[in-house]
Structures are given as structure tokens and as C-alpha cells.
Amino acid sequence: MNQFSPQSFLAQRHAEISRRNFLYGLGASLGSLALTDLLAADQIAAASGADEAGPLAPKPAMTTPRAKNVIMLFMEGGPGHMDTFDPKPELNRLHKTESKSTRSLANGFKFFVGSPFKFNKVGQSGIEMCDQWKYLANPAVADELCNFRGCTAESLNHPEALFQMNTGSRLGSDPSVGSWATYGLGSENQNLPGYVVMTELAMPQGGSTNWSNGFLPAHFQGTRLRPEGSPILDLKSPEFKSRAHQRAFLDQLSFLNEQHAKKHPSHQDLAARMESYELAYRMQTEVPGVIDIGAEPEYIHEMYGLNEKETAAFGRQCLMARRLVEKGVRFVQIFSGGWDSHDYLERGHSARIKSVDKPMAALILDLKSRGMLDDTLVIWTGEFGRTPDNNKRGGVYSIGRGHNADAMTMLLAGGGVKGGTIVGGTNEIGSEAVDCVHPIRDLHVTLLHLLGLDDNKLTYLHAGRYKQLSQFGGEVIKEIIA
Amino acid sequence: MMRVICVALIVALFFTPQTSLADEKAERQFTLKVLPILTEKCFGCHGNDADDIKGDYSMLTRELLLKGGETGDEAVVPGKHNEGTLLPAIAWEDMEMPPKQTDRLTKEQIELIRDWVVNGAPWPSEQKQKTYRDEAKLEMSTDEGDIMITSGGTSDDWTYRRYKPEDMWAFRPMKKVELAAGQNPVDALIDQKLGEAGATAASEADPLTLVRRATFDLIGLPPTPEEVKQFKLTWNADPDMAWSELIDRLLESPHYGERWAQHYLDAARYADTAGYSNDYERSNMWRYRDYVIRAFNKDKPYDEFIIEQIAGDELWEQQSEGEKNPELLIATSFLRMGAWDPAMVKVPQARQMYVDDVVNSVGQTFLSTTMRCCKCHDHKFDPIPIKDYYRMYAAFAATQLAERPAPFLPEENLERFDTQKKQVKLLHKFAKDRVDRLVTKRENAAKKWYKENGKEYVTHNDRKNLPDEEKPPRHVGLDATDQGRLKVREQDVWVWNRRLERYQPMVQSVYNGPDPGYLNARKMRMPGQIKKTEMVSFIFNGGAVEAPGDKVQPGVISALGLPVEPKTETKQNGSEKDPYVIGSDINGRRLAVAKWIANPKNPLTARSFVNRIWQHHFGKPLAGNPNSFGAKGAKPTHPKLLDWLSVDFVENGWTIKRLHKQIMMSKAYRQTSEHPEMKSLLVKDPDNDLLAYFPTKRLTAEEIRDAMLRVTGELNPNGGGLPVMPEINMEVALQPRMIQFSIAPAYLPSREPEVRNRRSIYAYRVRGQADPFLEAFNQPNPNDSCEVRDVAAVSPQAFTLMNSDLMGDRAIAFALRLQKENDSLGSQIHSAFELAFGREPSEKEAEKTIEYVKSMQDYHQSVEPKPVTYPTQITRSLVEEFTGKPFEYEEILPVFEDYIADKKAADVDADTRALADLCLMLFNSNEFMYLY
Questions:
Q1: According to a count of CB atoms within 10 Å of the terminal CB, is the N or C end of chain B lower?
Q2: Total domain count for chain A?
Q3: Which chain B residue's Cα is nearest to A6?
Q4: Is A43 on the interface with B (CB under 8 A)?
Q5: Domain extents for chain B?
Q6: Contact assessment for residue B524 and residue B333, using Cβ atoms and an 8 Å cutoff
Q7: What is the domain extent for residue A309?
Q8: A215 and A300: one domain?
Q9: Contacts of residue A276 in chain B, CB cutoff 8 Å?
């Protein structure tokens, strides 16, 4: 597993050189380059044993993978587990009685909050969800879901908790899960980014740090497809420049670069940089193609909720996620905010559930019908869970919940996941996970494991230490794996 | 701890009965070599489990071991290796012991046990064994590695573990090797390694390459065509003199400090905001950025630079009233550099976040040491026990954050204060008016409620804690939209209030005192009176504040063997005082740490800094991990050279400009980036560790932008002052950016082009909103110290460089300059190459380029670009956090009321647009992007 061995500055250089070698393979777009160079590149590649491909070229998994791609649906703000998938009748009994819990940050009088929603057992498997989930409750969907209730976070603050769920570190400077996955496996499509992120118009708290490549090379950073305006910044030329104009520009640029390369035959990076322009040129047609969902049949539009105001935005992103994965993109992440219900819990959560329910169910059914669900791991999670109790606000019993790092809820489906199961559990009032308890790092390790990657071997030397996604290692959560 | 052991040892030796030297040797051998083998290989079955002793043979004491087991045969006869059953058994000649193949003793182990038998099988007492072991621990260097003396880890295993000597290079004293008189140290030591590897250095680069290399290197800008011409002329007369004069001229340029401050700020993590969810403005950070630039320009000795940044406020307190130097307080903004926000975090944890960040930052920046590794446990790889981490932690534990008054210095640039203040006040008033309006609406409704309920009106603040039935509903009179808007406007008022502090003579600084009871990064001030406190610090085992362990004194890293000065008066536990500990007064702790770091004998400090300077000259450091010199960091390629330069740097007063020149005058720095034997070198030395040729560099993000502005003639060379707001991608500037409870105000570019076109180091740096152009070119995230910037060529860079508005604007500005300064298309193209590349186009290039521009002239005749407009107001929509209801509000963008935009495609004719296509292409070319 050459590419996963501890990387040194040297090995990273080799990767640069081998990328260059890959580019020679492409030939056509690069014009003429000195033959001596080509030979030198071959020798180096042979000497270093580096693989003959670009940084995003597909790489073999370390172990038999259960999933090839990941679609992560990130519910920013922290959905309440007791108001979605983890019923707590005890809370309804205690509703509005005093809570003496000292876990949350808030001081002063606290009272328990019962969930405003009723819960049902759904599907053959009888997994539980609140009655707001209309589409997810469809047995064909519900029986694909694994509800994991044992995960614990560390931070009670949104950005740190987001950073931890996305990068394994609360500090927000390490590579994100998607970057590690792309670093480990490359991507199947060289004309698209390997790791794509979709957000609402407003970025989540902490912004692009959530999909940063951290200390990994920039090839592995998440590319954000923006929901409005240009999907990728500056993807399109100004309107007065035609495609032919751009081709002429690139050809002339290529001429200048070739003249330059003749004077600097040993310079390793010139060809790679030229190729990045050709890739950009190809992406300019490829990306709008993926984004253009007009070509999808009407029943698909209907299924994903594109015809309804409440579900259209998230539905469009779910549909795009399916299209991206179909095209070979390794890791897709969608951020959907508004789950931070400190008050007006019933209204807030029911609106949020409504906005994601239909699109999520459609995504799972659609992946299933295309035979893609077996290879695609779908994860639905927030950055933490919510407290069983709340503070008075302005002297009023406000029906909402605080942040809770000790308990949360998530759904997993597809790629190697045991569908129709509930794994782990929280205590009677949902204040903490008590059964099959695992920190976020174990979830990360499990996710890599399903992709056929070993967290302990997927390392990168940074700041004097071999870094890994889990920071210090973790364990696979076997219970959720089929 | 070492000292305690020594004392115990002397006592033990003193009372031990005389033993002959030979006996003692055998006893020592048994204790250190034989007993461990028996313990590992035999005792498991023969003694440890008293209920199950295999073969009824216990080996736990000498007597039992000699006696043997159930067979009744003697196992060992002292002095007789041909007798007894043990030796044949372990040699697998008779019985086979240990029975497992994988457990068999090695030849050496069998030999050791045989010798022991021959020497009479001595078995010293437990006490003597301990003495021998303790003595062995003190044997500093063995073939198993070196012991590093530290203040002691949490276990003896850690304290007495051995390190590979080559891993500990940075913790050992620096040595300056003797060089022949007149030798350039850089060349002497690089040539030495080249010679050992059977390689030769590349030849000298041509003058154009050299003048570009040196100019970008020292000032981060390209040389002008005139400067190139002038340099070539003087070079032809006397290359050495020309080169020396060029370096001197560049080092005197005010742009020198701008360039090298940027490198430093990468490590220090400069930003104008505090990060995390609020991303509060740090209103006066720009003064620190200018302090760093000034320090480089004035060639402030590096030791002073360190001391001021770590302990400037303590020095300031020592200065008498009227003689206080504000520079000292400005310097301490270094201690405010990390992302930090105590929102939603309890005070002790928030304080830990801060102190941990500072300790780690000081370690990385000045000592190239990763302190964070020992926050929870003794360092896994380096000789830094958790105790030393918490000693350093204690040294910063009394450091509290505050904005402090510090008068402006004459050398600070106070331009634009009036105009900027005016705009901020406008924005502040807009938000405040709306807050007031909504509050009035609410209070009117409240008054109505009180009246209807026959009660006397109570103000909003006063009624907060009243029981529900005695007051109106909490958002009385406000619908969901009003509630949302009120929250947004209240946040805006805070944002603009903080921004107004930019124009105050204040600075993001620190003071010494007890932890405040309440922390909010929105406003941090010094208390009027600082309570006198004893501050006791603890080791937090596992890094948990909730679980304080042993007490620690403030102190420094002990493994360097460098004591703190002045020595403390306090004695520890009544015994000898520890040389690495600082007094317990809360004042003076940081000064002691700073002086210890800046001590000429500190082996990490000078090496760390010289390595960074070298890194930015050669594009690669001598020691591959500039933030981490520990066992896991890359070893220096030229240790002798790093040491020589470091010692010399210290001996010559820590002056930085001298170091630059010393490096740049070398032959190695003047080499070409090609080599006649490149093919074999790439195989033999793929990283160019030998420096057989000059490493190529891609321009950094800031260099790309600044160089373009210089080439187009737009660059405003003025230095210092308020952050400037270059135009950034307009979609990003106006897109909503979530902050706690609200959306941050839009990014507003500066109104005048000359303000926007200042150098990139002066650009406003927001943690939550990177400039997408600079970010695409790997400007590092300021949340983390950056030791080496990434340079990967990725397609978003191509999109930005080809398609962005700001590149379009630069290209048109460049084209207009060319047209203004040249008449014919031929001379415009000629001049374009000279300005962008410092050279004339070749005949072929000129010919093909004219052809291209002409065809573009035809193209542009047929198109009509649309004029660009800027919005003066935008509508935002947001979901109110608590009500879950969406609402809209208006945001004003006053700068666009009378904005002076750059010339756009629609403002110029087809010929200019065609020429601009070429200009854009030159900026996209590899020749512009790389340095040789």
C-alpha cells in the first residue's frame, strides 16, 4: 500500500513528479515537450515506485470496501434526538417540572421539555421515528435505515462541534472527512472535483473550514457548489467571451508556456499547472451539465420535492448529490441549517423535518432503484444532540432545548450498513448516551472502514506527527455494519 | 528529580560494605542484564505464580534457582559452567527451555547467563540492585541512546528513556565549525556535502534571473524594466559589486519589511478577527501588523523582537510614566493572535483554550516545538514532560486579555481615519435607529399592557426577572419579523461599535491578573484595580481542567539544560531550587520566559529563526519542519550550516538583514535552477537536499496580487495603517455569512482604487471570510500556524485567474497602461513582456502574439460587454433561531453610493479589450507564476 505509507516531504515530491508523469500520458493538450524530460520522468517514477496518475486518480482501497461513495447530509444546529428518532416518553411525564441537571451551560431555573411529537414504529423492522417524518416512514425507506444513538460529541458550541464532526478536531484546522476519503481513494471522475459540498446561501458556522483540506494537499479540499449565482466561483468566463474565444486564449497561453518550458526543461511543475487549465476548461462544461437537473424526468422532480416550496432547495441538492455520485464523485456533503431550536421547538423542528423528509426519502429510494445504494453510504447527522430540559427565557417557559454533547442521533443507510436497526441508546430522559457509546472519532473510523480505509494507516506527516482523521485512533462500531 | 536521585545514590554507596571490583562487575551484570532475561523468559512459569510452579522449580531467589526442581538435580553450580541443568536447558541441549520456539534465548543471552554462572552466580540484595540500576540510569550515553535530563516525567520509564542522538539535534548546544578564513560559510558547507555525494553545484544564473529572484525574495515585487536594465549594466561591469549593491538597496526598501513580515505572520497566524461563531473584530490588530513590518525594516534584533512580543506589557509597566513606549504594548498583540471566543464555554475551559493556544503558539513560533503534544501526557517522542508543559502554562496562566490604551506613535499611518469613521458611524446609526424604533414599538405595547392591567410601567431591563403574571409577554408588540430584525440590528450595533474602536488609540493587549469571573470577547477591558492574587497552577492530567493534579511552578522546558535567569529566590520543598522554575509572583513570569527564549545559549531559538529565513530564500528549509524540530521532525539537510549561521547570527547581535545578505551573497543562492546532470540528480536527490541547483518557487498569493498591481501600474506603495478592503469576488462579498444570532455585514471594498490597490498584507483579514483569490493561491487559514505553504496547481486557480472580475480589471488596467505609454501594437506587446517578465519577447513570440491580438481585435468588434453596476442595498433573509420563522431585512452598502470602480470591459474599446486578453494571458502564464 505504497501511497498510504507515512509520507515525508520526499514522498510528497514524488507524488508531484508522478502527477507530471500522468500528464504526459494525456499528451494531446500539452503540446510538445522535450523528450529528455519524458525519460527523466519515467526514471523517477520507477525509482520512487509512485503510481502513474494524478492526485485524484482512483486508488485501491486497503481492505474490501463496503461503500465507494459517501453522501453526508449535515443538519446544522443540532437536531433534537428526542424529537426525531429517539422517543422519550419519560420527558412528556416530566414536562415543565424542574430539572436539576447541571450538564448544560445555562444557569438558573430549568424545566424538562416533553417532545411535541408522537412517535411510531415504522417498517418491518419497527424502527422509531416521530410522526413528522411522512416519507422516511415508508417501509421501503425505513428498513434501509440504521439509527445510531450512541454517538457523543465534545463541544457545546456550534463551530467547534461542527469542526469536530467534519474534521475530527475542535480546533478547525485539520482535514475534513471528505478530504481524507478523497486522499485515500482518489475520485472516479477526473473532470469533476472528488469532494463536493453544497450549502444553503449562508455558509454554516465556521465556513469553509468545515470542508478544508487542512494540511493535506489542496487537491483534496471540498469544492463548494454554490446554491445561487455561479456554482463554482468564476466557473464561467465573462459573458462577452465565447467558448471559441477561450479556446484561442488557452491555445495561445499554451504556446507561451511551451516556449517557457523549453528554457526550463527540469522544472517539475509546469506541465501540471498547464493541465490544471485544461481540467478547468473541461469542468466548465461538465459542472453545468451535472447541475442542470432539467433533463431529469418529471417524476424525479416530483419525488425529490422540487415542486414544493418547502422541499425544493434541499431536494435539488439531494438530486444533485445522486447525479454527482453517479458521475464518480467520491464524497458529497449537503449542509442544511436551522435545527437550533432553543424555543418554538414544535414549529422549528417540524418545518426542518418537512424540508428534508421528502428529499431524503427520495434520495434513498432513487439510489436503491438504480442499484447505487449498496455502494453509497448515506449519513444524516448534526453536530450534537439537544438537552431534555430548557431555561426560562424572559421569565417564560420556552419550549425548546439547549445543546447536548453527551447524546445525539444519526441515521446511516446503504454501503455496508445494517438497515432497519437501532444501535445504541440514551438514558430515560435522553440526557446522555448509555448504550454502545462511541465518540465521534469512532464514527469517523467506521466511515473510513466502510470505504475500505484503515484510519491507522491513512496517515500524513504534519507538524512532526503522523496525523490521522481520528487524531489518536479509534474503533470500528461493528454494531452498525451489516 | 535527578538531584534527588544523586543524593540517594551517594548515601547508598557510602553505607554499602566493600565489594571487590570484579564482584561488583558480576553483580552489575546480573542486575542489569541477566535478571531482566530471567524475569522476561523464566519467572512466568518458575516463580511468579506461587500456586503453579512448573516442574516445582522456582527461580525467584538465588537459593531456589541454584537448588533446582523436581528432578532433584542442582540447576546451577556457581563457578562451574559444565555442571548444573540450567545451562543445557536454555541451550536446548537437554531440556528445551523456554519451551516455545519463538521464546528461545539468543546466543548472546545464553552467553550472558553462562558468564554469570562462571563468575559465581552472584545475586546482590534488592537494595544493591536498585543502586546498580540507578547508576545505570545515570549513564547518559549508551549504544541504546541518550538519556535527556528533564524535570521528570510521570513515570521512571519515561524519565529514563533513551533517545537516538540524531533525533535530539535541536535540543543540544549549537556548534560553529571552524572554516578557513575568507570562506563563505554557506558555500563551504554546501560544497562539502556536494563533494561527499559526488555532485557539483550548478553554474551561476543569468543577471535577469538573479534580479528577479532577489527582488521578489526581499520585497515581494517584480523589478521594474528600468531596474532590470540598470542591474544588467552594473553586472556587466562588476558582478559581485552589482549583486552586493542590489541586496543592500532592496534591504533598505520599505517593502522589505512588508514581505518578511508576511512570512512571520504566517507562523504567528495574523487575522483582524477573533474567529469562531462570533468572529468579533479585533479592532486594533493592524497596529501589530505594522509593528512587525517596522521591526523588520528597522532591523530590530531578533531577541528584542521576541521579548517585546511575549512580555512587552511587563516591560511597559517597568517604564516610568511619561517614558512609556506604546510599541511595547502593541507588540503583545502576538499573545492575542489565536482564534478564541469564550461564548458558550465556561470560564475555566475558556481560559484553558486561551492559555493552551498561547503556550503552543510560543512553542511553535519561537522554539519550533509542538507543546500541545504534552497537554495530556508526557511527550510521546520529545524530551518534554507534561510537567514542563504545565510550567510554561503556569507562566502564562495570569495573562489576561484586554484592549488597552496605547497612544499612536509618530511612525504609525493614521490616514483615512476621518472618512472611515464617517462611514462606520453611518452604518452604526442605521442599525441603531432601527433598534431604537423596534424597542420603542415594543415598549409602547408594554406600556399599553401595563395600563390595561392597571399596573405601573417597568422598563425592559427591570422587568426581566419579574414573574410572568406581573409583566407583558416577552416580545410584546413585535411580530416574528420584528423579533428577527431586532436581533440582527442589535448585533450590527455591536459590530460597528467594535469597528469604531479601530480609530481609538487602543491595542489588543494583555495584563497580569486573576481570571475574570465573566468573559465575553465582545468587549475586554482591564479592571480598574487588579486584585492581588496568589496564583497556583496545577498539572491537568489528560488535559482536563476539571481534574487538577500536582501543583506546578511557572517555568520553562528543562531538556535544553538552560536555566531561567535571574535565578528564583524561592526554594522548592525546602530542598535545592529547580533551575527551570520561575518565581511565583504573577508579574514577571512572561519576561522570564521571554528572556530564556531569547538567551544566546538557547539552542532552539536561533536555529528556529535562521531556518525560517533560509526557507524563504531557498523555498525550502534546512530542517524540513520549521514548526517542529523534535524527534519526528525532518532532520536538517545541512546541520553544520544551520548551526554555523545560527551561532553567527547570535554572535552578531541577532540582526536579520545581515543574515539575509550572508545567505544571498553565497554562490549557492546565485545558482541556476537547471543542472547539467539533472537526470541523475533527480533520481539520486529528488528533493534537491544537496542544493545542487536553485529550487524553483511559485509566487505566493500575495506576491501574485502585488506583482500584478505593480505591473499594471496600479500599486499604491504606501505602507501601514487601517486595514484596506480590496475588491473581492462580489458574490462572496455579498453572500450571507452566518455569525452567532445573525448574518455578518457584507464585505465592502474600499471606495477609492488607490486604497484598494495597497499591498495584500494590508488587506482586512477575516477568519470567517477568506479572500477567495488569495485563498485559491494557498494563503493559509489563520487558525493554524503555517510552516510551509501549499503550492499545488488546482483548477480553481485557473478559474480565478482566467475568469474573475478582478483579473479582468487588472488586465484592462495593464492594457490601458500599455496604450498610454506606447503607440504601436508592436511596442505595446514589447512593453507588456518587459513589464511582466522583465524581458523582451522573442521574434517568434512577438509575431504570434501580434497575430493573436489582431484576431482578438476582430472578435471584440463583434461583442458588446454589459456595464457593471454595484448594488447600494441588499435584502437579506434569515430564519429566526427561536421562532423558526423566516424574515427579511434591508442592509445598506453605502460605499457603492459614490464608488470609484476600476475600468471595466464595457468602459473600453475593442482594441483595449483585445490587448487586455494578452495582458490576462501574461498573468496566467507559467513564466509570471514561477521564480527561478
A1: N
A2: 2
A3: B632
A4: yes
A5: 2-138, 185-260+606-629+637-697, 271-413+508-597, 701-931
A6: no
A7: 69-228+292-480
A8: yes
A9: 793-795, 797-798
Q: Which residues from chain B sit within 8 angstroms of residue A10, using beta carbons?
A: 686-687
Contact A44 B686 (CB under 8 A): yes
Phi/psi of residue B128, nearest 5 degrees? -65, -35
Mapped onto helix, strand or coil, the DSSP state of residue B35 is helix
> Which residues in A188-284 belong to E strands, given as ranges?
195-198, 223-225
Classify residue A241: in a domain, yes or no: no
Residues in chain B: 932
Å from A417 to nearest chain B CA?
33
CA distances from B821 to A268, B277, B768, B917 (A): 37, 50, 42, 18
Distance CA B760, CA B774 (A): 9
C-alpha span between A438 and A428 (Å, rounded):
18
Residue A36 to residue B679, Cβ atoms within 8 A: yes
Is residue A319 located within the same domain as residue A347?
yes
Model-level pTM? 0.81
CA distance B304 to chain A (A): 27
Residues 6+ apart with CB under 8 A from B100: none
Cα→Cα distances B796→A329, B779, B792, B799, Å: 17, 14, 11, 5
Nearest CB to A276: which of B339, B795, B927? B795
Partners of residue B277 in chain A, C-beta under 8 Å: 157-159, 205-206
Query: Cβ contact (<8 Å) for A10 and B686?
Result: yes
By CA distance, what is B475's nearest residue in A?
A394
The answer to whether residue A159 neighbours chain B at the CB level (below 8 Å) is yes
CA A174 to chain centre: 15
Q: B794, B833, B880, B908: best mutation site toward chain A, by most A Cβ within 10 Å?
A: B794
Note the ipTM here.
Answer: 0.84
Tell me which amino acid residue A205 is.
Q
**Using the beta-carbon criterion (under 8 Å), do B682 and A236 form an inter-chain contact?**
no
Measure CA B589 to chain center.
22
Residues 87-146 in A contacting B (C-alpha not used; CB under 8 Å): 105
> What CA–CA distance (Å, rounded) separates B609 from B263?
11
For residue B381, list chain A residues with Cβ-Cβ distance below 8 A: 464-465
Q: Which residues of B touch A264 (CB under 8 A)?
A: 673-674, 696, 930, 932
User: Domain check: are A320 and A190 in the same one?
Assistant: yes
Are residue A218 and residue A264 in the same domain, yes or no?
no
Beta-carbon separation of A173 and B783 below 8 A: yes
A8 to chain B: nearest residue by CA?
A: B634
Q: Quick check: B763 and B771 in contact, CB under 8 A?
A: yes
B456-B460-B465 Cα angle (round to 5):
90
Residues A380 and A424 reside in one and the same domain? yes
Please indicate whether, in this complex, the C-beta atoms of B930 and A206 are within 8 angstroms of each other. Answer: no
Cis peptide bond N-terminal to B505, omega within 30: no
The answer to the question of residue A237 being in a domain is no
Alpha helices in A195-242 (DSSP H): none
User: Using the beta-carbon criterion (under 8 Å), do A252 and B632 form an inter-chain contact?
Assistant: no
